[in-house]
Amino acid sequence: MNKKIIFSMLALFTLILGACGKKEDNVIKIGHKNFTEQRILAQMGAILIEENTDFTTRVSEFGGTMLVNQGMISGDLDLSFEYTGTGYIYLLNGSGLKDPEAIYEYVKEEMAKEGMTWLSPMGFNNTYAFAVKKETAEKYNLKKFSDFVGVAENMSVGELGDFFEREDGMPGVKEAYGFSFGKEVNMDPGLKFRAIEQGQIDVAVVYATDALIDKYELVVLQDDKNFFPPYDAVPRMKTEFAEKHPEIVEQMEKLGRIFSDEDMRKYNYEAEVLGVEIEEVARKALKEKGLIK
C-alpha cells in the first residue's frame, strides 16, 4: 500500500480517536440505584448540568448501594446521590451517633479522607417511620413516636419480620421509647399499605418519602428521639473530579437543603402511582424550586 495512503489513514484514525476522547471528556457520568427516588435525583442532576453548563450527561442504573459505590471509586461514575445513613452505617460501619447533622458531618469528613466529596444535603430524610390512618392519628392524638406510650399495646404494626428482631428495628424502638405494640405482623412491604387501609393493622413501618403514603393518605409520625438514623440524600463525587469541575459542584450545591419529605413523597407519587415520566417529574421539581425555567 502507498506510504502516503497509510500515513493518511493513520492520521485520520488518530483524529477520530482524539474526537471520541474529547467527546467522552465532555460527558458527566451519573449513576443511580434501582428505585424511583434515585431515578428522579439522577435526572435532577442531569438536567441541571445540561441546562447550565457545556457538559452532556449519561445516566445509568445500577442494582444497589455497593455497585454504585464501586462505580464511584473506580471512576466509572462521576456523580451519584447517596444517603447519610447508608454512608454512616454501611460504607463506614459507624454507630452511636443519632443527630442528623452530626452524622452528616462525620460522613463528609470520613469520606473526604477516602477521596470522596459529599456536598450539601438536599433537605429530605428518607428514613424509617411509623405511619397511621388520619382517623387513628386523631383518635389517639398521634403526632410523634412518644405518643404511642399508653396506647401501643392496643394496636398492631406491620413490616417484614426482620424489623422485629434487629436492634436497629423494633427492639431498639421499645428500649428507646418504652412502648410495645400489642401485635407485630410479619408482612411483605407491598402488602402493608393495603393492610392498613383495610384495618388489618393499625400502624405501618414505612420510609418517610414512600409514594404510597400519599396514595393511602397516611399520617407519618415524628421520630422525636431520633432513634432511626437519618437518610439525608447528598450529591457526591470524587474529590479529584470536584476540584477539576467546580461548575458541576456549583450546580449540585443548588440542590442543597431545598426539598422536604413531603416534596419527595409528591414526586415519587407522580412517578410511581400516576405514571409520569421520571425526567418530567425531575424537571417539574427543579422548576418548582426556581432552579430552571
Gyration radius, rounded:
23 Å
How much of the polypeptide forms β-strand, as a percent range?
15-25%
CATH fold call of the largest domain: D-Maltodextrin-Binding Protein, domain 2
Q: Total strand count, please?
A: 10
Name the poorly predicted regions.
Answer: 1-22
CATH class of the largest domain: Alpha Beta
Number of helices: 13
Total separate domains: 2
Q: Strand order within the widest sheet?
A: 2-1-3-10-4
* CATH architecture classification of the largest domain: 3-Layer(aba) Sandwich
SS-based class: alpha/beta
User: Could you state the order of secondary-structure elements as H and E?
Assistant: HEHEHEHHEEHEHEHEHEEHHHH
Helix content: 40-55%
Query: What is the CATH superfamily label of the largest domain?
Result: Periplasmic binding protein-like II
Mean pLDDT: 91
Head-to-tail CA distance between termini: 58 Å
Inertia-based shape = globular
Biggest sheet, in brief? 5 strands, mixed
Describe the structure.
- The chain is α/β, with parallel strands linked by helices.
- The chain has two domains: 3-125 and 230-288, Periplasmic binding protein-like II (D-Maltodextrin-Binding Protein, domain 2); 128-220, 3-Layer(aba) Sandwich (D-Maltodextrin-Binding Protein, domain 2).
- It has 13 helices and ten strands.
- Strands 2-1-3-10-4 form a five-stranded mixed β-sheet, sandwiched between helices. Strands 7-6-8-5-9 form a five-stranded mixed β-sheet.
- Helix 7 links the parallel strand 6 and strand 7.
- The longest helix has 23 residues, at 3-25.
